Amino acid sequence: MQVVQTIPALRAALAQARAAGRTIGFVPTMGCLHAGHLALLTRARQEATFNVVSIFVNPTQFGPNEDFSRYPRTFEADRTACESAGADLIFAPTPADFYPQGAATWVDVEGLSTGLCGEFRPGHFRGVATVVAMLFNAVQADVAVFGQKDLQQLAVIRRMVRDLHFPVRIIAHETIRESNGVAMSSRNRYLAAEDLQRATAIPAALAEARRLVAAGETEAARIRDAALACLTKEPALRPQYVAVVDQETMAPVTQVTPGRCALAIACHLGNTRLIDNTVL
C-alpha cells in the first residue's frame, strides 16, 4: 500500500494503475477510521480494482465554533486499518498543500444545502462540495462510495456530480452501527459509555418511524411527532431537528412516499452532535 501527500505523487501512482488496466475506486474520509469507513472500502473493492482512501480533515467545512482543532487525528491507526482492509493507496495531503495559496473558488449546491444541517452549520456544505470536487478532480475515480448516514451530504454530492458532469459513479452504502444500534461515527469517541447508551434513543426513534410507515401511516407530521416523542424520553438528548424529507431534494414533505422519503435526526448529547436517518 502506498501513502502519498501531494497531487503530483497521487497522479503518478494512479497513472501507473490505469496503465495496468485497473479501475479506480475512491473512499473520501477525514480519518479516525472505524468499521463504517472500512465497509465503504470493502464495497469499493467490489466495484474497482485499485482503491484510494483519502484522509484529510477539511478545514473549510467546520464553522468557527466547531471541533476542527480537536477532531480526532489517528493517522498511524488509520494506515494500519486501510492496509488490513486492502486499500491500495492513501492520499493524505496537508491543508497547505491541498488548498492553493489565495484559493477563492467554491462549489455551492444551492437549495439542497440550506435545510437540516445546513440551517445550523452555515457554509458547511459549501466546504464539503468544494473539497469533494477537488478530490474528484485529483483522483478521477471511476466509482466513489459514501455512507448513507450523511444523508444530506450524499444528496449534495450526487447533485454536484450531476450538475458538473463529473465522470464518477456514486454508491451509497448502508449505515454501519454499533452493537447497540447507534450509527458509527468518528465523534462517538467523544462519548462516555453511559452517553453511548443514552444515544440509543436515536435509533429507537428511527425504528418507531419505520414501524408506523409499515403499519400504513403516511402523514409526515404524525411520524415526526412519534419520533420526537421517543427522543424526549432521554433527557440528555437535545434534538436539533427531526424532519421527514424527500431523499433527493431534502425538502420537507407532508405525505410519505415509501422508499422515496426519509426521517432525518440531529441531536446534541453533551458537546457532541450526532446525526442519523432512515429510509421510510
Task: Give a topology summary.
Elements: E1 2-4, H1 7-19, E2 24-29, H2 35-47, E3 50-55, H3 75-85, E4 89-91, H4 95-98, H5 117-120, H6 124-139, E5 143-147, H7 151-164, E6 169-173, H8 193-198, H9 201-214, H10 220-232, E7 237-246, E8 261-269, E9 272-279
Parallel strand pairs: 1-4, 2-3, 2-5, 3-4, 5-6
Antiparallel strand pairs: 7-8, 8-9
Helix pairs in contact: 6-7, 9-10
Cα-atom radius of gyration: 19 Å
- Compute the average pLDDT: 97
Low-confidence spans: pLDDT under 50, at least 5 residues? none
Number of domains: 2
Our estimate of the beta-strand percent is: 15-25%
- Which CATH top level class of the largest domain fits? Alpha Beta
**End-to-end distance, in Å?**
40 Å
How many helices? The count is 10
With strands numbered from the N-terminus, the spatial order across the biggest sheet is: 1-4-3-2-5-6
Tell me the total number of β-strands: 9
Give your account of this protein's structure:
The protein has ten helices and nine strands. The protein has helices at residues 7-19, 35-47, 75-85, 95-98, 117-120, 124-139, 151-164, 193-198, 201-214, 220-232, and strands at residues 2-4, 24-29, 50-55, 89-91, 143-147, 169-173, 237-246, 261-269, 272-279. The mean pLDDT is 97. The N and C termini lie far apart (40 Å). The longest helix has 16 residues, at 124-139. It folds into two domains: 2-173, Rossmann fold, CATH 3.40.50.620; 186-279, Pantoate-beta-alanine ligase, C-terminal domain (Pantoate--beta-alanine Ligase, Chain: A,domain 2), CATH 3.30.1300. The chain is globular. The protein has a six-stranded parallel beta sheet with strand order 1-4-3-2-5-6, with helices on both faces. Strands 7-8-9 form a three-stranded antiparallel beta sheet, with helices on one face. With 280 residues, it is α/β, with parallel strands linked by helices.
